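Fold this: DUF5723 domain-containing protein
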Amino acid sequence: MKKLVGILVVLLAISVAFSVTAVTLNPYLEGNLWGKVELDKTGLTTDLGFDVYSIGFGAAADVDGLTFSLAIDLVAPSVTLDSFTVENEKASASWYAAKSFGYDDGYGLSWFSYYGTTKGTTFVLNLKELGLQAATQEPDLLGASDRIALRGAWDIFSFSAQTGLKDLKWSGDVILEASLTPFKGLTVTGGVDASDLTGTPVFNYVVDVGYVLEVGLLTLNPYARYSDALGQWVGLNVGYGIGVLTIDANVQYDIAANALGAWIQPVISKDGIGYAGVKFVYNYDFVTPAQTMELGFLVKSLGWTAGPVSLDVFVGSGDFRTRDDVDLVGFGYEILTDVLADWTNISAYVKSALSLEMGSFKPTIGASGGYYIKDSASALNVNVSFPVLDLVTFSASVDILPAVDWSLGLYFDKYF
């Protein structure tokens, strides 16, 4: 109790302090609260739990050209300054606790794509009217040099450059990257990584060229890359769509490997009816020489519902056990190969549900099952669930294949 009172006092003090300085305080709680009463073939289990991922406050301010972000973690406990920015009409200066020079899933600066995508404590000075930005970085990697970077971006051209300092000495490396879009559709990007310039210089380079041309319903995307270490190839992406038909294709010649690869995937699909697609893959190795061909297909329902009944049917190449309903990949989500090498590499998978409403009683009865011809693997499950007193959920599940298993119970699961 004393600990709880202490936390409440701290929260109140923080709230009061921030309210005085006109800071917006956003409390957050991330975790999973769960409870269950479950009976299965091993016995009866009664359990509960609360998994706290994080609890605290996110604080942000925007006062007189100053913005900053704080993370106040009451679990650690810790107060972390994530970033802050001071700015006016001509310029801005920003400090970040952890920022990448690369894309970093959308959280980075996106100044560099090929080389030097380091991450660490970063400062950025933005000269708005000139289109120029400068940055320094204290990298996370132990022993790495401090980085200094420059970025310029205008209508059709942008460039980024960086080098390093270590113990007040030049690190002996320079990284340059640039992008040019001379006209709509054409993009040329490239980069050079020069290291050990004070000793035995080493140079790495890459150039990418891509063009997108749309002619009616047809999209053509020729592209090429030339690099000493990041691959060498030329290729063409083709896309075509009209009504329920789409055709995607690619052909690529790998210069370094002296190999040709191509695939084509025509698909017919319509919501409420279904999806039917075929994918043919062809590869030729000029060195061996040798060729390989693969063929895959997928036929599935799309939105089959009739009142309270829903039905999903999948038939295609590949193993149904690769199906991942979380990441939406694998069987049923993409066309897998190959049935040319082994025609038994085919699966069928069916999932159905019946959702009823009988006053306050709203059960859902479901069944799912799959079969893989190649190794005769099978799965069959029947389940029923319904809310109880609008508080918890009763669920019963029976696995019939590949082995008999069962469970039933009352469950409550809430993510914050």
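Confidence is low (pLDDT under 50) at residues 1-21. Residues 257-415 form one domain.
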